[in-house]
């Protein structure tokens, strides 16, 4: 007799496959660390002039956006780029050339927030004050921010966090039957298309591993309502949205895990 959790996992996987059968999601080649295909977008900024926009924003990263490796170089984006949170963590190079204070040199920003009202252009970046000023010539950040709205160029690039590994910040509401976490610092594509979880006892009668598909709760938060107690350590499998690359963080959540704690894996995409 299959367990309740096994049934729930199979139902979740079936639903994901059924939903995916009606959509075409072409996968792309690996992203480069340097921009190759530039497009036009509008750009504004919010928050304090030298700040990080808002406290983590709708992706759920919290105050880590002000710390390395994000270092306040973050942005909110309009619905076309935010994609209901699927693009949280994606990296872009941006540059401006049409204002006297523009340096014309590209800088990299990470999507950490959404701007639902940013729909006047096909693509719009509502940047942190730090990110907006970084497009300026030396000592001209204030002059550039005073311009308000700019036309910029942007391009999708790979994320590179200088050897930092993927981390899982466990949601405060997690318990033995319910697990949720913010997933941070994915290099390469930066985004996530699917996340799966396996506990220490998840195998069928012939010994095959059983993975449960997690659901995107909101932003960069993924959750699993297991239906019964999870047996740690927990392993988490990540698949990127952009290229479909998969990565396994084996036993990343230890036996004595605690809500609110952050657990760092030993893996990343680069």
Layout of secondary structure:
Blueprint lengths: L3 H17 L18 E8 L27 E4 L1 H4 L8 E5 L11 E8 L9 E5 H6 L6 H6 L3 E8 L9 E4 L7 E7 L9 E5 L13 E2 L1 E4 L2 E5 L8 E6 L6 E8 L8 E3 L6
Parallel strand pairs: 1-5, 2-4
Antiparallel strand pairs: 1-6, 2-5, 3-4, 3-6, 7-8, 7-15, 8-12, 9-10, 9-13, 11-12, 13-14
Compact description:
The chain has 270 residues and is an alpha+beta fold.
**Series of secondary-structure elements, N-terminal to C-terminal:** HEEHEEEHHEEEEEEEEEE
Query: Percent range for helical residues?
Result: 10-25%
Rounded to the nearest angstrom, the distance between the terminal CA atoms is 42 Å
Number of helices: 4
Alpha-beta content class: alpha+beta
- The amount of beta strand, in percent, is 25-35%
Strand order of the largest sheet: 1-5-2-4-3-6
Mean pLDDT: 87
The rough form would be described as elongated
Q: In terms of per-residue confidence, which ranges show pLDDT below 50 for 5 or more consecutive residues? A: 10-28
Question: What is the radius of gyration?
Answer: 20 Å
Tell me the major beta sheet. 6 strands, mixed, barrel
Features of the shown structure:
6-stranded mixed barrel, 12% helix, alpha+beta, 5-stranded antiparallel sheet
Task: Please explain how this structure is put together.
The chain has 270 residues and is an alpha+beta fold. Helix content is 12%, strand content 30%. It contains four helices and 15 strands. It has helices spanning 4-20, 79-82, 129-134, 141-146, and strands spanning 39-46, 74-77, 91-95, 107-114, 124-128, 150-157, 167-170, 178-184, 194-198, 212-213, 215-218, 221-225, 234-239, 246-253, 262-264. The strands form three sheets. A six-stranded mixed β-barrel has the order 1-5-2-4-3-6. The protein has a five-stranded antiparallel beta sheet with strand order 11-12-8-7-15, with no helix packed on it. A hairpin with a 6-residue loop joins strand 13 (234-239) and strand 14. The relative contact order is 0.18.
